[in-house]
Task: inverse folding
C-alpha cells in the first residue's frame, strides 16, 4: 500500500471502504473458486476446451490485463524507489533490476512463488510490528472520524477505489486451480488477510499522522520515518526493503501468469522465452514514460475495475455454468 | 548438441549476473559516504528582506588528534547561514557554501524566529514535505529574538548543541513547563500550534574562543509557550504551562505548590491521565475533561492533611485549567485538540464550521474535573 | 596398457589352466610390484595364492590361508577335494566369494582379498583378509559438540557401516552396496530404514549412481552433482555431508537416506532441508529451553553473517538516517580519516579475512599461531591506527566472521553471499539489498529434492516437523515420530 487511492480524504472512510470491498470480493470470487474446485483447470484452458477462438480471446484478455498491471508495477517500483532515495537512482537500471529478478523467478513453479510470497508476508508483519511499536506513542484515536461531506458517496468512492486496485482477484481466478487443498478456503483466508492488512495500515497511518497523511505523497513511508525504536532512529529503511520485496513478488506473479498465457497462445515458445517476452513488453511500455519523467500521470490515473469484474467474476461464472459437474457434485 | 539443462543453467547465471550488474549501476556511483555529508542537527528560520534567512548547525567532527571520534568537550558544530526567497532556496545555497551534501535525516530541531508568521505552515515547510528525508518528528520551537542567535550557541552538554537544546525542550515538556510541538502536529492542522519559546540569555559568551565553556543553563532558557493563531501570537506563562499540558494530554510530570493552611506544600505530579467527553445538550456543546493524577508531597502528611491537600490542589488546578481553557477558546485558539474531538463525534457540525472553527470552540461550555491522589 | 584393453580383460572368464590365468593377470596388471603370487603344489595340483601387498593382512594370510592349505597338503587331496574344501568345508574367512571372471577377481584383490587359483579349475576362491592401514575411529573434527558422541566416520566403508549398525539395532536398517567409478571402483553403501525412507527415492538414487561415468570417486563431492538436482543452480546444497554417526542415525530415523563412500569420512545425507543446517546433536542433550535459545542464536548468526556487512555498507552510504544520532556521529567521525569509501574498505577487509582463514586452514599447526598474530596485530590494530580502515567497520567484520563460524556447514554459501550483499548494499543501498534478498529467497524456495521442499517443514507447512525447527521438541512429542522431510510414511503415531 504505497499511497492512498486518489480522491480519498478520510482515513476512517477509506478503512470502512476497504472492509466493505473485502466482503464484496469474497462474494465475487465464489464462481472462480467453485470452478477451480470442480475442474482443477485455469479459465484459459477451459475456454480452449470450449473453442479455439473463445480460448484465444479469453487468454488474450487475461494476458493484456496482466501485462497492464505489470507495466504499472514496474513503473511504480522505479518511480518511488527514485523518490525514496536521497541520491538519484537511475530509473532504467532500477527497472532492469526488478524485471530481470522477476524473470529469473517467473520461470519457476507456482509453488515456489507461493513460498516466497509467504516469506515476504511474514516480513510485512514484522515491518508493521516494528513501525507500530515505534509510533505507538503518537497514536490518537480521535483522528478517526467520518467528517466528509457526503458519507455514502465517499464510502462508495473508497469501495470502488479499493476494488479497482485488486488485480489479485484476476490473478486468483487464473491461479485458483493450482492451489493445493480447498481453493474456497484459501481464497477466503487470503482476502481476509489482505483486507486486514490494508485496514491495519490505513488505521496506523490515520491514527499517527491524521490529516498530515494526506499532505504527504507517501503516507506509509512518512509513518515509518516517524517511527522510532530502541535500535534505529527511523523505520523507513525496513519499510523500503519490504516494499521492494513485495513489489518484486507481485511483478513475478504477474509475469508468471503472463508467460503462461503466452505459452497457451504460442505453444511452441519455451518457458524461458515466454517469460522474457512477458517481461519485455511491460518494460518497453514503462521505460519511455519513466525516462521522460511522465510517470506521475500514470500514478494518478484511475484504475479500471471492469477488467477485474470480467476476469474475476463474469468469465468464471460463465465457465462454471457451462462446465459439467464433477462426480462428487452430481452425487450431492 | 548442447544439453538443454546446460543451456538453462547458463541462462540462469546470466540473469543473476545481469541483475547484480544492474544493482551496481543503479546509483551510478553517486552514493555519498557518511563522511562527505554535512549532518544538519538544527536549523533556524528567520524572515529577512530577501525572504528567509536560514541558519544551520552542521556536525563537525574533531580532528584526528583526539582520542575519541567525537570530542565530547567540544561543541562539534559549525554554523552555515544563507538567504533565499524560500526556505528551500536558502537551503540549497547553504549546501553549496559548505561544500558538503547537506543531510537532513537527523534534523532534530527547527527553530522559528520571533518575527516569523505562520499563516501558511505548509507553504513555509514545503521543504520538509516530500523530500530531504526530514523526519515528521522534528521538534519545533520559537526564538524570543532571532533563531540565528540560538543556532550560534555552541553548547557542550551533549555531543552537539542541538542535542542539548532538544534535551532541554524534552525535559521541560515532560515536566509540564511548556508544550512540545513537532512538525507533523503543526502540519496536520488538528489544533492550533503551541510551541516552546527559547531565549538566549544576554551576556552569555558565544565567541568561538570560549565556545567550549558556556553551560546550557547560563546560555538559554525557556520563557514560555507561544500559541500561534491567525490573529497573532499569545504567550502562555509558566504558570499556565501545567494546565495547558494537563488539558492537552501532554503532561507527564509536573510540580505544584499549594497553600495548605498557610503552609506551602510542594508536590511532584505523576501519572497524569486525561479523559474527555463531548456531548450536545440543548443545542450547546459541552466538553467535559476528567483528569486524574497522583501527587507526592515533599514531606509526610497525615491522612486528614492529605485529604485537604488533595481537595485544595484539585480546586487550584481546576480553576487554572478552566481559566486557561476559557481564555484559549475565547481567542479562537484550540491547543487541546478539541476540534478533533468534535470532528470525531459531531462530523456534520464540524463540516458546517470547517472554515471558521474559532466560532465553534468559542461556543463550547467546558467542565474540568481533576482528581488528585496523594501518594 | 591402454584402458580399452583393460576393459576387455575385465569381462573375460578365468581359464582352467593356471599358468594362462597367471599370465593374463600379470599382463593385465603390468607386472605391478605390489602383486604377490605364492605358488605351491598340493599333491600334484598347482595352486597360486594371490594378494596385493599392503591390502591383505600378512598375519591373516599366514594363519587363515597358508596354514590350512599346508595342513591340507599333508592329506594328499585331489584337485576336486581341494576345491571342495576351499569352497564348502573350510572356515578360512568370514567373507568368502567365488569368482569366475577377471574383472571381479581384480576388484576383490584390490579390496584386500586373497585369491586362490587351482590348476584345472576355472574359478577362484577369494577370502576377505583385509589388512590395509586404516585410521581408527577418532573425534570428529568439523562437527564438534559439547555433549554428543566423540566418534566419527572413518575412510573405511565397513567400519562406518558398523558405527551405524551399532546405534540402530533394528532389522529394518538396510545397507545396499554399489560400485561407482570406472578406475577407482569405489564401494558406495546406501543405508536406509525400510518403511521410513521413500522407496522411489532410493530407486532413483541408485539409478543415478549407476549411471555415473566418472573414473574416480574420491569423496562425497564427486557424487553430489549427480544426486543433488539443483547442484549447479542453488547456492545451498540440498545434500548434507556429515562425519558423525549419531547425526547420520538421527537422519535415518527421520526417513533420510545415508550414502557412505569408501575412502572418505564424509557421508552424504539426503534429502535435507534448510533447517537441518541449524540442528546439532547438542540440541538433544540439553533441555528444550536452552536448545531453543541455541537454535535461535544460530539463526541470528546466519542472518548476521550474511547481511550485516551489506546492511552496514548500505546504511552508511545511502541511509544514514537510520542510525541513532550518537552512533551516526561516531561513524561519521571515524570515516573522515579513512581514504576509501566504506564499500571498498568492507570488501578489502572481507577478502583479507578470507585469505587469512584459508591460510590458517592450510598451514601446519606449528605455524598456525602466526596467522592469529598477523591477523590480530597487523590487520586489526595497525590498520586502524594508520587510518586505512575505520574501527566501526572492523567491529562489523569481526562480528560477521564470528557469526559465520557458528555454522561451518554453511560457510561456503555464507562467504559468497556476504560479498554479493556487500556489493549490492554498497552500490544499490537498501534497494540492492532487497533485490539480492529476493534472489536469495527465490533460490532457496526453488530447491525441491525428491519431493521435499528445501523450505520444509515451514513451507509447505507440516506441523509435525515444525516444533523441531524453531525450538527443540520435548521427547514426549518426539515419541510421535517427527520428520522434516515429506514422505508417504511420515505419519504421526
Result:
Amino acid at each position: 500500500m504505497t499511497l492512498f487511492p486518489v480522491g480519498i480524504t478520510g482515513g476512517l472512510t477509506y478503512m470502512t471502504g476497504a472492509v466493505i470491498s473485502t466482503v464484496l470480493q469474497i462474494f465475487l470470487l465464489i464462481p472462480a473458486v467453485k470452478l477451480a474446485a470442480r475442474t482443477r483447470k485455469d479459465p484459459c484452458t477451459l475456454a480452449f476446451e470450449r473453442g479455439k477462438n473463445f480460448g484465444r480471446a479469453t487468454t488474450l484478455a487475461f494476458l493484456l490485463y496482466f501485462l497492464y498491471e505489470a507495466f504499472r508495477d514496474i513503473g511504480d517500483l522505479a518511480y518511488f524507489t527514485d523518490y525514496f532515495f536521497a541520491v538519484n537512482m537511475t530509473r532504467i537500471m532500477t527497472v532492469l533490476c526488478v524485471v530481470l529478478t522477476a524473470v529469473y523467478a517467473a520461470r519457476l513453479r507456482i509453488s515456489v512463488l507461493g513460498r516466497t510470497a509467504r516469506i515476504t508476508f511474514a516480513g510485512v508483519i514484522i515491518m508493521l510490528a516494528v513501525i507500530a511499536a515505534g509510533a505507538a506513542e503518537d497514536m490518537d484515536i480521535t483522528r478517526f472520524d467520518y467528517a466528509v461531506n457526503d458519507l455514502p458517496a465517499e464510502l462508495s468512492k473508497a469501495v470502488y477505489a479499493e476494488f479497482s486496485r485488486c488485480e489479485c482477484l484476476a490473478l486468483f481466478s487464473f491461479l485458483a486451480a493450482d492451489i493445493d487443498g480447498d481453493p474456497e478456503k484459501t481464497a477466503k483466508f487470503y482476502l481476509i488477510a489482505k483486507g486486514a492488512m490494508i485496514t491495519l495500515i490505513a488505521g496506523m497511518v490515520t491514527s499517527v499522522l491524521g490529516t498530515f497523511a494526506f499532505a504527504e505523497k507517501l503516507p506509509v513511508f512518512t509513518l515509518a520515518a516517524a517511527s522510532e525504536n530502541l535500535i534505529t532512529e527511523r523505520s523507513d529503511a525496513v519499510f523500503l526493503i519490504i516494499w521492494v520485496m513485495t513489489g518484486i513478488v507481485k511483478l513475478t506473479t504477474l509475469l508468471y501468469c503472463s508467460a503462461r498465457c503466452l505459452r497457451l497462445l504460442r505453444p511452441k515458445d519455451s518457458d524461458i522465452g515466454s517469460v522474457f517476452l512477458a517481461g519485455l513488453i511491460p518494460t518497453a511500455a514503462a521505460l519511455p514514460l519513466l525516462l521522460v519523467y511522465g510517470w506521475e500521470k500514470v500514478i494518478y490515473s484511475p484504475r479500471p475495475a471492469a477488467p477485474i469484474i470480467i476476469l474475476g467474476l463474469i468469465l468464471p461464472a460463465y465457465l462454471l455454468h457451462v462446465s459439467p459437474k464433477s462426480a462428487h457434485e452430481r452425487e450431492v | 548438441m548442447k544439453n538443454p539443462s546446460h543451456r538453462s543453467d547458463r541462462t540462469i547465471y546470466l540473469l543473476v549476473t545481469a541483475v547484480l550488474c544492474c544493482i551496481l549501476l543503479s546509483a551510478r556511483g553517486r552514493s555519498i559516504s557518511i563522511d562527505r555529508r554535512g549532518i544538519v542537527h538544527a536549523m533556524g528560520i528567520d524572515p529577512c528582506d530577501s525572504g528567509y534567512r536560514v541558519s544551520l548547525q552542521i556536525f563537525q567532527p574533531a580532528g584526528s588528534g583526539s582520542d575519541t571520534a567525537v570530542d565530547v568537550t567540544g561543541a562539534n558544530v559549525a554554523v552555515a547561514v544563507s538567504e533565499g526567497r524560500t526556505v528551500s532556496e536558502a537551503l540549497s545555497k547553504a549546501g553549496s557554501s559548505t561544500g558538503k551534501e547537506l543531510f537532513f535525516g537527523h534534523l532534530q530541531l527547527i527553530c522559528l524566529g520571533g518575527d516569523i508568521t505562520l499563516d501558511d505552515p505548509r507553504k513555509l515547510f514545503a521543504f520538509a514535505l516530500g523530500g530531504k528525508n526530514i523526519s515528521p518528528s522534528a521538534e519545533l520551537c520559537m526564538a524570543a529574538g532571532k533563531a540565528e542567535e540560538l543556532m550560534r550557541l555552541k553548547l557542550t552538554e551533549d555531543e552537539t548543541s542541538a542535542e542539548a537544546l532538544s534535551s532541554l525542550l524534552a525535559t521541560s515538556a515532560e515536566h509540564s513547563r511548556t508544550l512540545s510541538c513537532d512538525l507533523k502536529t503543526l502540519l496536520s492542522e488538528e489544533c492550533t500550534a503551541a510551541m516552546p519559546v527559547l531565549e538566549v540569555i544576554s551576556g552569555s559568551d558565544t565567541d568561538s574562543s570560549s565556545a567550549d565553556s558556556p553551560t546550557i543553563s547560563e546560555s538559554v532558557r525557556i520563557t514560555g509557550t507561544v500559541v500561534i493563531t491567525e490573529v497573532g501570537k499569545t504567550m502562555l506563562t509558566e504558570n499556565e504551562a501545567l494546565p495547558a499540558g494537563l488539558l492537552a494530554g501532554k503532561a507527564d510530570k509536573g510540580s505544584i505548590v499549594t497553600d495548605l493552611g498557610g503552609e506551602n506544600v510542594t508536590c511532584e505530579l505523576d501519572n497524569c491521565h486525561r479523559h474527555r467527553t463531548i456531548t450536545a445538550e440543548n443545542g450547546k456543546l459541552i466538553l467535559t475533561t476528567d483528569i486524574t493524577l497522583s501527587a507526592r508531597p515533599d514531606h509526610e502528611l497525615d491522612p486528614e492533611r492529605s485529604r485537604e491537600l488533595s481537595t485544595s490542589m484539585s480546586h487550584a488546578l481546576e480553576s487554572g485549567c478552566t481559566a486557561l481553557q476559557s481564555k484559549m477558546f475565547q481567542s479562537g485558539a484550540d491547543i487541546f485538540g478539541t476540534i478533533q474531538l468534535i470532528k470525531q463525534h459531531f462530523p456534520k457540525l464540524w463540516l458546517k464550521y470547517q472554515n471558521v472553527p474559532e466560532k465553534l470552540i468559542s461556543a463550547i461550555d467546558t467542565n474540568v474535573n481533576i482528581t488528585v491522589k496523594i501518594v | 596398457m591402454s584402458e580399452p584393453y583393460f576393459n576387455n580383460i575385465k569381462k573375460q572368464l578365468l581359464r582352467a589352466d593356471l599358468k594362462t590365468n597367471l599370465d593374463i593377470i600379470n599382463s593385465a596388471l603390468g607386472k605391478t610390484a605390489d602383486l604377490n603370487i605364492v605358488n605351491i603344489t598340493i599333491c600334484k595340483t598347482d595352486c597360486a595364492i594371490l594378494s596385493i601387498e599392503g591390502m591383505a593382512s600378512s598375519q591373516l594370510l599366514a594363519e587363515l590361508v597358508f596354514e590350512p592349505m599346508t595342513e591340507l597338503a599333508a592329506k594328499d587331496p585331489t584337485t576336486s577335494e581341494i576345491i571342495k574344501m576351499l569352497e564348502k568345508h573350510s572356515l578360512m574367512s568370514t567373507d568368502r566369494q567365488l569368482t569366475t571372471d577377471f574383472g571381479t577377481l581384480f576388484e576383490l584383490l584390490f579390496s584386500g582379498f586373497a585369491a586362490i587359483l587351482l590348476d584345472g579349475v576355472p574359478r577362484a576362491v577369494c577370502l576377505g583378509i583385509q589388512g590395509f592401514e586404516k585410521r581408527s575411529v577418532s573425534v570428529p573434527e568439523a562437527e564438534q559438540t559439547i555433549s554428543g558422541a566423540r566418534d566419527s566416520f572413518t575412510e573405511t566403508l565397513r567400519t562406518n557401516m558398523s558405527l551405524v549398525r551399532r546405534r540402530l539395532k533394528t532389522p529394518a536398517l538396510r545397507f545396499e552396496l554399489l560400485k561407482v567409478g570406472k578406475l577407482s571402483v569405489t564401494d558406495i553403501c546406501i543405508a536406509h530404514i525400510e518403511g521410513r525412507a521413500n522407496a522411489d527415492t532410493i530407486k532413483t538414487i541408485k539409478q543415478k549412481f549407476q549411471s555415473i561415468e566418472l573414473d574416480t570417486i574420491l569423496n562425497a563431492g564427486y557424487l553430489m552433482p549427480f544426486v543433488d538436482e539443483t547442484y549447479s543452480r542453488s547456492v545451498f546444497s540440498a545434500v548434507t555431508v556429515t562425519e558423525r554417526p549419531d547425526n547420520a542415525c538421527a537422519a535415518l530415523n527421520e526417513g533420510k537416506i545415508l550414502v557412505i563412500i569408501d575412502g572418505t569420512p564424509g557421508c552424504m545425507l539426503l534429502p535435507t532441508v534448510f533447517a537441518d543446517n541449524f540442528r546439532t546433536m547438542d540440541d538433544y542433550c540439553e533441555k528444550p529451553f536452552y536448545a531453543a535459545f541455541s537454535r535461535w542464536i544460530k539463526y541470528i548468526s546466519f542472518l548476521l553473517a550474511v547481511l550485516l556487512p551489506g546492511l552496514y555498507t548500505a546504511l552508511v552510504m545511502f541511509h544514514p538516517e537510520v542510525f541513532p544520532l550518537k552512533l551516526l556521529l561516531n561513524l561519521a567521525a571515524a570515516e573522515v580519516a579513512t581514504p576509501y569509501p566504506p564499500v571498498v574498505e568492507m570488501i578489502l577487509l572481507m577478502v583479507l579475512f578470507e585469505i587469512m582463514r584459508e591460510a590458517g586452514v592450510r598451514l601446519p599447526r606449528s605455524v598456525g599461531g602466526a596467522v592469529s598474530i598477523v591477523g590480530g596485530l597487523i590487520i586489526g590494530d595497525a590498520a586502524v591506527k594508520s587510518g586505512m580502515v575505520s574501527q566501526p567497520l572492523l567491529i562489523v567484520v569481526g562480528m560477521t566472521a564470528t557469526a559465520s563460524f557458528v555454522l561451518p556447514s554453511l560457510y561456503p554459501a555464507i562467504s559468497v553471499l556476504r560479498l554479493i550483499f556487500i556489493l549490492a548494499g554498497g552500490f544499490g543501498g537498501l534497494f540492492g539489498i532487497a533485490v539480492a534478498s529476493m534472489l536469495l529467497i527465490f533460490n532457496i524456495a526453488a530447491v525441491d529434492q525428491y519431493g521435499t521442499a528445501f523450505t520444509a517443514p515451514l513451507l509447505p507447512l507440516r506441523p509435525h516437523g515444525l516444533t523441531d525447527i524453531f525450538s527443540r521438541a520435548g521427547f514426549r512429542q518426539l515419541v510421535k515420530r517427527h520428520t522434516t522431510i515429506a514422505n508417504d510414511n511420515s505419519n504421526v503415531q
Q: What stands out?
A: Residues 47 and 118 of chain C are 5 Å apart (CA to CA).
